[in-house]
Design goal:
alpha+beta; Alpha-Beta Plaits; 5-stranded mixed β-sheet; Nucleotide_cyclase; transferase; nucleotidyltransferase; GGDEF_dom; EC 2.7.7.65
Length: 188
């Protein structure tokens, strides 16, 4: 990865980990846990053209040379969905599906060196895990600014109910509404 950075070429890094791996290991045994790790590793190698590595425990990394952030995100979302669809390869009970959570960062957008890129991908992974797992998250950058404001409790309850009904996160609905609002006024 450092080679691409030294050449000042774009490179994306994804950190991913197996959701609820400790529970799988504890409830189904080390043999089942080992099988999950081996299967995830095999799927990563099949999919990533030898650019996937086991970092530690149930955490893996995928290097995506010359990838834009959007390309890396879409590739990782495809990988996440493929692992979710490959349940028969894990040989686990149906009530123990294997899913992965992924954090993506890209040089030069998110970091200036290899260590910074790894930290940014790890931070994105933590964000993805904290907001629900089985998803892909991007490293936050300077252009993404946290804004907070207060809403009437009735509006918050309605937003929560709508999010549950649509099976979406509240933040996704708020971003959709903001984008619609901006499009409306851009057309005037």
């Amino acid at each position: 990865m450092d080679g691409w950075i030294k050449k000042d070429e774009p490179v994306a890094l994804a950190h991913l980990d197996v959701d609820y791996f400790m529970e799988i290991n504890q409830q189904l045994g080390n043999e089942a846990g080992d099988r999950v790790l081996q299967t995830v590793a095999a799927l990563l190698q099949e999919w990533s053209d030898k650019q996937a590595y086991r970092v530690s425990g149930d955490e893996f990394a995928v290097v995506l040379p010359k990838a834009t952030l959007e390309q890396a995100f879409l590739k990782m979302e495809t990988l996440r969905a493929q692992i979710e669809q490959a349940q028969d390869r894990f040989e686990l009970p149906e009530d123990k599906p294997v899913t992965i959570t992924i954090g993506v960062a890209q040089y030069p957008r998110d970091a200036k060196n290899e260590q910074g890129l790894s930290r940014a991908a790890s931070a994105a992974l933590v964000t993805a895990k904290e907001t629900g797992r089985n998803q892909v998250a991007l490293a936050p950058n300077e252009e993404m600014v946290m804004k907070s404001c207060y809403y009437p409790s009735t509006a918050v309850r309605r937003l929560k109910a709508l999010a549950e009904q649509l099976n979406k996160k509240e933040s996704v609905l708020l971003r959709e509404a903001l984008n619609d609002l901006l499009r409306k006024y851009d057309q005037q």
